[in-house]
Specification:
This protein is mostly helical and about 130 residues long. It has 2 domains: about 90 residues, 434 Repressor (Amino-terminal Domain), CATH 1.10.260.40; about 40 residues. The chain contains 6 helices and no strands. The mean pLDDT is about 80.
């Protein structure tokens, strides 16, 4: 039997976060995903927050329901659990990142420059006047 170490809990949280982001990107609710898997929305929620471990078989079912490969839920080859997931826990941010990933080369750089410029302009407009 596997010991419940911090590393095990970290990977459960990581996979759960990836499940949540993928579910949101697929525009599914916890209830809809649960129904697809024969689970309650509470169980889906527990998977997503890493409270409950997702078995390999269940992860395969989740991946199939969401339209992803099971391997997409695991950390990159370097084995590091990325804090970046906390930045993309909203479906709209995930969708933008996924779209940017499909663009390559100079077009991607141009798009990123436009987004950064727009964000800087918005930040300036939102600052309260000095005085």
């Amino acid at each position: 039997m596997t010991q419940n170490t911090d590393a095990n809990h970290d990977i459960d949280r990581y996979i759960g976060q990836r499940v949540r982001v993928a579910r949101l990107a697929a525009r599914m609710t916890q209830k809809e995903l649960g129904a697809e898997l024969g689970l309650t929305f509470q169980q889906v929620h527990k998977y997503e927050i890493g409270e409950n471990h997702i078995s390999a078989a269940r992860l395969y079912q989740v991946a199939t329901a969401i339209g992803m490969a099971p391997g997409d839920f695991f950390p990159d080859d370097d084995g590091m659990i990325s804090d970046a997931l906390t930045l993309i826990d909203r479906a709209d941010v995930f969708l933008v990142l996924r779209a940017i990933k499909m663009i390559s080369g100079n077009k991607r750089k141009t798009l990123i420059d436009i987004i950064e410029s727009f964000a800087a302009k918005i930040r300036c407009e939102e600052r309260p006047p000095r005085g």
